[in-house]
């Protein structure tokens, strides 16, 4: 039995064709720049003088000077400790965009990207001229790199007054806050980019994916209303996310838009500038955030192009809300079902550990800490160990003293771990001196902190059937039978 004849079938095909055709025509075209182009541009214009995230105000000054031919420089004022804060203007267009970075002194990723962008903008005679011309003719851009130079000097969040500048938008107790507020008022930008870093423990909620970039179009009131100003910020963010999903799929989170009445982003949105928050998180294998620096360059350049061409108008606030939320569910290490003993009974607990960074002269070490324990299924570890049947076991201090750090090598330290020693003593070393050994080094104390409870230092062994299988040293997991290569960021105690 024939259901349709040949003519009907042809009509059906025609109908299908039209349907597909219409669908394609209705889909918004991407207005993003090609990812490969953005990547190439970054490689070409990377500022080679900045190679890590702990650069200081003094490192930036010659780089700012370098651009004085092509940018208009304006000193806006000074920080509490007297460091200059400079605005750099570029472009001759109508639409005004202001970007400020490093309001928190230890959040430097975007600052690096801005200096790459300055190199890009000032280039000429290559395949990027068309983009540059579009930006130059449509936009007037005001860049303020490193709003908190005193915080950057100490590589800490707050300024020299120990005030969080992002809670000083209204009171303006800090000169840096006055500078930023005046910079906005003088310029009255249409768009604003508030550039930060977030902790590496942020993830895309309920997934093990690290939130390498998080975004927010801050709310301007407690009701979380959306007006035209805020909507434009949302639309621009959708375009940025489109780029990011091609490079770091699933690794973009959206911040909660609860209103913070003291924050700059929220207030600048309120004052009529479409404000976009970019938070650079972590990326495995990128401790100095050089890959994330590239991502910043790519999304900022693309966003500027979207603003210049009004490409962002293709996107909707609905698409913005489809970006998944940020979570704070990452741990450096999760040990699952370790047997711990209380009152002679064994209990299997998951132990969740973070190794937080602490500053040392121009570098850092980590401080391992037990963050939580029990049922840790809502967390994700960068490293996880199924430790069912393993017992928590205490470590010992090796009795003989070593001369100094150089007299202990990696192999020797590993041998001592296998024998149940978690720490060695040295005669000559400075307290807090940095080292990369897989064992604790003591100079000013005879023993080391340990335990398995919240806040304890994660220095212990795992033992199975009377044999030591793993050492946990300052939160680093070391498989004693099969140690992997890893970098230990340690200090002398
Ligand atoms: Zn911040």
UniProtKB/TrEMBL annotation:
Residues 51-295 form the Peptidase M14 domain. The active site is at residue 260. InterPro entries: Peptidase_M14. One of its GO terms (biological process) is proteolysis. One of its GO terms (molecular function) is metallocarboxypeptidase activity. It holds the Pfam family Peptidase_M14. Belongs to the peptidase M14 family. SUPFAM superfamilies: Zn-dependent exopeptidases. This is Zinc carboxypeptidase. Keywords: Carboxypeptidase, Hydrolase, Protease. It comes from Algoriphagus hitonicola. Coiled coil: none annotated.
């Amino acid at each position: 039995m024939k259901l349709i004849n040949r003519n009907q079938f042809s009509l059906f095909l025609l109908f299908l064709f039209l349907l597909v055709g219409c669908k394609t025509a209705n889909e918004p075209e991407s207005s993003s720049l090609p990812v490969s182009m953005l990547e190439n541009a970054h490689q070409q214009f990377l500022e080679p003088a900045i190679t890590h995230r702990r650069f200081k105000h003094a490192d930036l000054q010659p780089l700012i000077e370098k651009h004085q031919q092509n940018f208009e420089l304006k000193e806006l004022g000074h920080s509490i400790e007297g460091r200059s804060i400079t605005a750099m203007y570029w472009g001759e267009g109508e639409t005004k965009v202001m970007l400020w970075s490093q309001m928190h002194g230890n959040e430097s990723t975007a600052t690096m990207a801005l200096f790459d962008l300055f190199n890009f903008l000032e280039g000429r005679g290559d395949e990027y001229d068309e983009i540059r011309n579009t930006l130059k003719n449509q936009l007037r851009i005001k860049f303020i790199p490193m709003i908190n130079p005193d915080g950057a000097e100490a590589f800490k969040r707050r300024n020299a007054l120990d005030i969080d500048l992002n809670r000083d938008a209204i009171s303006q107790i800090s000169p840096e806050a006055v500078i930023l507020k005046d910079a906005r008022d003088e310029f009255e930008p249409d768009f604003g980019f508030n550039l930060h870093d977030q902790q590496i423990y942020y993830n895309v909620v309920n997934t093990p994916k690290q939130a390498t970039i998080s975004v927010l179009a801050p709310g301007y009131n407690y009701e979380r209303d959306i007006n035209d100003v805020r909507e434009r910020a949302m639309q621009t963010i959708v375009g940025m996310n489109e780029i990011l999903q091609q490079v770091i799929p699933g690794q973009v989170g959206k911040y909660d838009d609860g209103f913070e009445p003291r924050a700059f982003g929220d207030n600048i949105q309120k004052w009529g500038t479409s404000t976009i928050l970019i938070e650079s998180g972590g990326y495995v294998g990128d401790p100095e955030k050089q890959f994330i620096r590239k991502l910043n360059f790519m999304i900022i350049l693309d966003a500027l192009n979207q603003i210049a061409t009004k490409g962002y108008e293709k996107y909707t606030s609905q698409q913005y809300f489809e970006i998944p939320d940020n979570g704070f569910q990452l741990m450096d290490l999760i040990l699952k079902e370790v047997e711990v003993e209380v009152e002679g009974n064994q209990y299997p607990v998951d132990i969740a550990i973070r190794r937080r960074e602490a500053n040392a002269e121009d570098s850092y070490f980590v401080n391992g800490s037990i963050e939580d324990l029990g049922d840790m299924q809502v967390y994700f570890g960068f490293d996880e160990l199924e430790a069912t049947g393993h017992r928590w076991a205490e470590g010992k201090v090796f009795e003989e003293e070593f001369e100094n750090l150089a007299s202990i090598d990696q192999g020797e330290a590993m041998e001592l771990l296998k024998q149940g020693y978690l720490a060695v003593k040295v005669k000559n070393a400075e307290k807090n001196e940095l080292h990369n050994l897989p064992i604790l080094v003591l100079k000013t104390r005879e023993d080391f902190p340990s335990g398995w409870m919240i806040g304890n230092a994660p220095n212990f062994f795992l033992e199975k059937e009377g044999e030591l299988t793993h050492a946990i040293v300052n939160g680093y997991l070391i498989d004693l039978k099969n140690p992997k290569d890893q970098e230990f960021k340690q200090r002398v105690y």
